[in-house]
Amino acid sequence: MSILVIGEHDNTSLRAATLNTVTAATALGAEIDLLIAGSNCQGAADEAATVDGITRVLISDDPSLADGLAENLAPLLQQIAGDYTHVLAPATTFGKNLLPRAAALLDVQQISDISLIEAPDTFVRPIYAGNALETVRSTDSLKLITVRTSAFDPAGQSGAAPIEAVSGGHDAGLSKFVGEELTRSERPELTTADIIVSGGRGMQSSENFQMLEKLADKLGAAVGASRAAVDAGYVPNDYQVGQTGKVVAPTVYIAVGISGAIQHLAGMKDSKVIVAINKDEEAPIFQVADYGWVADLFEAIPQFEAALDSPAS
Amino acid sequence: MKVLVPIKRVIDANIKVRVKADQSGVELNNVKMAMNPFCEIAVEEAIRLREAGTVDEVIAVAVGTGQSQETLRTALAMGADRAILVETDLAPEPLAVAKLLKALVDKEAPGLVILGKQAIDGDNNQTGQMLAGLLGWSIGSFVSRLQIEGETVRVTREVDGGLENIELASPAIITVDLRLNEPRYASLPNIMKAKKKPLDTVTATELGVDVAPRLEVLKVVEPPARAAGVRVSSAAELVEKLRNEAKVI
C-alpha cells in the first residue's frame, strides 16, 4: 500500500485542510507522499515538507498549474496515480472540483467526504445532509477519496521530509483563470476556528452582523452564517455553514437568530458545544443546542458581550 | 445550440429521512419525492438561456427507474423542450451516471451541459466533474454567475475563500450553486402542456454502458443523537456555564 495526498495551497503556503487530510491518510497505515502541484510553489513545498507523517513531498511546478484548474491538474494525477493504492484530497471546493475528474480519467468510483476509516477499503461517510451515515467498501483497486476535514485533527508540522520533483503539467487549453474576489479577514478561518459565532435571517441586515463581529472578536472567534443570511446578502457566500456550504466542528458554535434547518444543522452539529440564541422557543436549533437562550438577539448579544467582561468566578 | 440538463429524483428537501431498521438504506416508500433542488436551478438557467436567445433547445435527462418520468415532466412543465429517461433498475453510482450522460452527449452534441453541483441524497458532488473528465471538456463548478459570449463561457464560482472568475472554452460543463437563480414554479397550463412534450426512454444496455456498482454499501445507520441541552435565562448564566461547566471559553 502507498498513499498520495493532494496538497491544497496557494503556491506560497499550505492550506490547513491539507493537514487534516494527511491525518486521515495516516489512519490507513502506509507511506504517504504529499503532492504540491502549482507554479513557483517552492514555498508551499517547503512547508509541506514539515508535515508530520509523510515520507516525501512531490513538487510539480508549471505555469499551467498556478491556479488549481482541474483541466490541467487531473491529467497529472492520472499520470502518477498508478504508483499508489490510495489518493486523498480534502473535501474543499478545490478537492471536490478536481478529484472526480481524475477519478473519471482513471475509471474509479470516488468515495466522497469520508468521516471515518474502518479499513483500507472501507469508509464511513455522511449522506442526506448527515441524517444518515453510510459505510461503503470500495471494490476498485485504486481508491480516490475526499476527506471531510472537520472529522480529522490537523497533522503536526515538525518534520523534514525530502522534496522530489515530478514532471508533468501542461495547459489543456480549456480554461483560464481570470481573477478572484476573496474575503479578507483578520479573524480565524471558519473551518479551523475554535469558536464560531454564526448569524441567520434573524440578523435582519449586514449592518447588524457587525454586532456579531464584535462578539466574535471578543471571543477570538470566526464569523459564519446560515444560507438565509447569505441569500439575503448580509454576508458573502464563503460565510455559509451547511450541507452545501462549509462543514465545521469547532469547540463552541454560537448560533444567533438561526432557526436550524436540517441543511444548516448538517454543517455544524458535530461541534463540541452548541449555543443557540433565538427569540422563537420552538426553533429546531434548540433541539441540538447544549445551551439554549430564548431571547431577542438585539438585547442578548450586547449583554453576552458585557458578561464576557466580568471576571471569571 | 442545444443544452443538456441532467436532473435527479430525490427525497423532498423538507422531509426528514428515516433510516431503515435493517440498516440497508433510508426509507423511500411512501416518502414525498421531488426534483433535487440544485437540478431545479440548472433547469431554470437553461430555460433562461433559451429565453435570451443563446440556446435553441433544452433537453432534460434523468437516470433511474420509470418513476423519474415524473421528475422529467416537472422539468418539461418548467419549460424544457423534451426529455430523455435512461431507465435503470437501481440508482447507478456517479461514475456510471457520467458514462451514461457521455453516451447521450455523443448522440445529441449539445454545446453546454448544466447540472446541479450535488444531489442532496448521496451528497457526492461528482457527476458533473466526471462527465467533464470523460468528455475532455472544460468545467465551471459551483457556479453563481454564467455568461456566454460566442465561444467563451465566463463563470463566477463560489469557492471556499470567496468568489473565483474563470473563462471556459466551449463546449463546457457547468455545475450550479444555490445563488445562480431562483427557479420558477410551473404554472397549471404549462403542467398540462408538458404532458404532450416528447419523453423518450433508452436503457443503459442500449447506450452500451456497464452500470455495475463499484461500491458495496455495508450499512446505513443514524448518526449519534445529541443529548438534550439546558435552557439559560441570562447572559451571566450562559457565560458562567460556558466557563465553569463546559469549560470552553
Tell me how many strands of chain A there are: 16
The name of the CATH architecture of chain B is 3-Layer(aba) Sandwich
Radius of gyration of chain B: 21 Å
Large-scale geometry of chain A:
elongated
Number of strands of chain B: 13
- The quaternary state of the protein chains shown equals heterodimer
Biggest sheet, spatial arrangement of strands of chain A: 5-9-4-1-2-3-10
SSE string of chain A: EHEHEHEHEEEEEEEEHEHEHEEH
Structure overview:
In chain A, helix 5 (206-219) packs parallel to helix 8 (297-309). Chain A has helices at residues 17-26, 42-48, 70-80, 93-106, 206-219, 227-231, 262-265, 297-309; strands at 2-6, 31-38, 56-61, 86-90, 111-114, 116-119, 122-127, 132-138, 143-147, 163-165, 175-182, 195-199, 222-225, 252-256, 273-278, 291-294. Helices cover 25% and strands 27% of the residues of chain A. Chain A has eight helices and 16 strands. Chain A is an alpha/beta fold and 313 residues long. By secondary structure, chain B is of the alpha/beta class. Chain B has a single domain, classed as Rossmann fold. Helix content of chain B is 27%, strand content 32%. Chain B is built from six helices and 13 strands. In chain B, the strands form two sheets. Chain B has a nine-stranded mixed beta sheet, with helices on both faces. Chain B has a two-stranded antiparallel ribbon with strand order 2-3. In chain B, strand 4, helix 2 and strand 5 (82-87) form a beta-alpha-beta unit. In chain B, helix 2 (68-78) crosses helix 5 and helix 3 crosses helix 4 (127-135). The longest helix of chain B is centred in the N-terminal third of the chain and has 15 residues, at 37-51. Chain B is globular. Chain B starts with a strand and ends with a helix. Chains A and B meet through helix 3, helix 4, strand 5, strand 7 and strand 8 of A and helix 3, helix 4, strand 7, strand 8 and strand 9 of B.
